[in-house]
Amino acid sequence: MSSLQGRVVVVLGGGSGIGLEVARRATAAGALVRLGGRTGDKLRAAAAELGPTVTWQAVDTTDQESLAEFFGALDRVDHLFTPAASYTVGPMRNLTDAEAESPFVTKFWGQYHAVKHAAPKLSDDASVVLMSGVASVRPPAAAPAYVACNAAIEGLGRGLAVELAPVRVNVVSPGTIDGNLWAGRPAAAREASFAQYRADTLLHRVGRESEVADAVLYLFTSTYTTGSTLYPDGGYSFR
Ligand SMILES: NC(=O)c1ccc[n+]([C@@H]2O[C@H](COP(=O)([O-])OP(=O)(O)OC[C@H]3O[C@@H](n4cnc5c(N)ncnc54)[C@H](OP(=O)(O)O)[C@@H]3O)[C@@H](O)[C@H]2O)c1
């Protein structure tokens, strides 16, 4: 395993949730962390909590000019994690076209363009971790565009691993995680989804943001791992 001491770690979507948890762990391991996200106040508060080795800059991953400014301000990137996304999930029959396309717009193309703008700044031994979701291989409910988007992200990780080598590119694909994202959804829907997940997964519980962060730190530092997708999902994907 390589060390994160003194390494530049960029987390897009680092102001909350899984991204913030990764920033916490990377900071504790001695990294110099740069947070990105759309809301300056959230990033400022996160950086204040984490300490002087953490800086931030507002960025919208759906806007390539914004991404160019964000990465233009950095000398180098040693590790990049890109969980930034905001989208609507649901059945084809219920969603507008704009809602159905939103996972691809923010989660797929947002990550693709983030890596494109980061690429000139990636060091030779850098690594990239893309964010997917286990719905890619086991859809919990009708949400075909969201399912397809996550499957596409896992393919994108393999494709980028080929193009960017020796830079390593991997994907983390979590199960249902009790954290910031679900806290913002209606309580009844959250409890119903959590109950179904507990019944359907081998470990009979939902996951924690810290457990996904552990997987991301492993992918950052595991020097012979590239093109892989890791599923911190309690065994949901194959049961
Ligand atoms: N939690 C789960 O159960 C779960 C399971 C599987 C996969 N995931 C994936 O994990 C990712 C992150 O989820 P999370 O649980 O950590 O929730 P979260 O707290 O909502 O994290 C998303 C972060 O991304 C930022 N963001 C959203 N759109 C952005 C954009 N266009 N440009 C820049 N930043 C943007 C948000 O901040 P601003 O709004 O301030 O920009 C927020 O800080 C999502 O892609 C989700 O699909 C989550």
TrEMBL record:
Record's keyword terms, sorted: Oxidoreductase
Membrane-crossing segments per the record: none
Annotated InterPro entries: NAD(P)-bd_dom_sf, SDR_DHRS6-like, SDR_fam
Pfam families to which the protein is assigned, alphabetical: adh_short_C2
Domain of life: Bacteria
Gene Ontology molecular functions: oxidoreductase activity
CDD domains in the cross-refs: SDR_c
Protein family (similarity comment): Belongs to the short-chain dehydrogenases/reductases (SDR) family.
Name listed for the protein in its UniProt record: NAD(P)-dependent dehydrogenase (Short-subunit alcohol dehydrogenase family)
Species the sequence originates in: Amycolatopsis echigonensis
